[in-house]
Amino acid sequence: MVAMNPFLPVSEEEIAARIFWIRQHRVMLDRDLAVLFDTKTIRLREQVKRNMDRFPENFMFALSDEEIVDLSQQGVFTSVQQLGGSRPLVFTEHGVLQLANVLRSARAAEMSVRIIEVFVKLRSLLSDHRELLTRMEGVEHKLNGHDLALEELFQLIRQLLHVPVPERKAIGYRAS
Q1: How far is CA 149 from CA 127, 135, 138, 142, 156, in A?
Q2: How far is residue 29 from each of residues 88, 139, 154, 169, measured CA to CA in Å?
Q3: Predicted confidence pLDDT, tens digits, the chain (176 residues)
Q4: How far is Cα 155 from Cα 125, in angstroms, rounded to an integer?
Q5: DSSP code string of the chain
Q6: Rg (CA), the chain
Q7: CA-based angle 113:52:15, to the nearest 5?
Q8: Which end of the chain has fewer CB atoms < 10 Å from its terminal CB, N or C?
Q9: Which pTM value belongs to this model?
Q10: d(CA 168, CA 123)
Q11: Structural domains in the chain plus CATH codes
């Protein structure tokens, strides 16, 4: 990837497009963070290795083979060979902040603030969607109740339409 120009701003949409949902966490790939922080991926990984005690499992983790294949099928990697034999590291919101502290560059500090803002906006959007989903489930539950009541009503109407008419006795003389 080409390094970012430090004078060009990065939009929130560009940052949000680099955030993925993996193992129930919103995360960013090490290579994307390296581009945003205007450093090389190898330098970023070196700093992480030197400061492993600052990156617990809920801050950073390496992708499994299945996750790498999933991301390559989504077009995140052009091919698995592009990785060069190393497993990508992914960083959660807290990991991004910790990574900026470890890298200690002005660009990393600036971009980490912008990235955290995008994470916060995504979280608020998700909570808005959850509220909407809860309301829709309530409406669906009501409609399901109405559906059952309407079905019972239609069954009763069908029964009334198909009530057998009793045979009437013929009036008059019978011929034998």
Answers
A1: 33, 21, 17, 11, 11
A2: 7, 39, 57, 88
A3: 444 555 457 788 888 888 888 888 889 899 889 889 988 988 999 999 999 999 999 999 988 888 888 888 877 776 666 666 678 899 999 999 898 888 888 888 888 888 888 888 888 877 677 777 778 777 777 777 777 788 888 888 888 777 777 788 777 777 76
A4: 44
A5: -PPPPTTS---HHHHHTTEEEETTEEEEEHHHHHHHTTS-HHHHHHHHHHTGGG--TTTEEEPPHHHHHHHHHTTSSS-GGGGTT-PPEEE-HHHHHHHHHHH--HHHHHHHHHHHHHHHHHHHHHHHHHHHHHHHHHHHHHHHHHHHHHHHHHHHHHHHHTPPPPPPPPPS----
A6: 31
A7: 30
A8: C
A9: 0.65
A10: 75
A11: 12-131 (3.10.260)
User: Which amino acid, 14?
Assistant: E
Spatial strand order in the sheet of 60-62: 19-22, 25-29, 89-91, 60-62
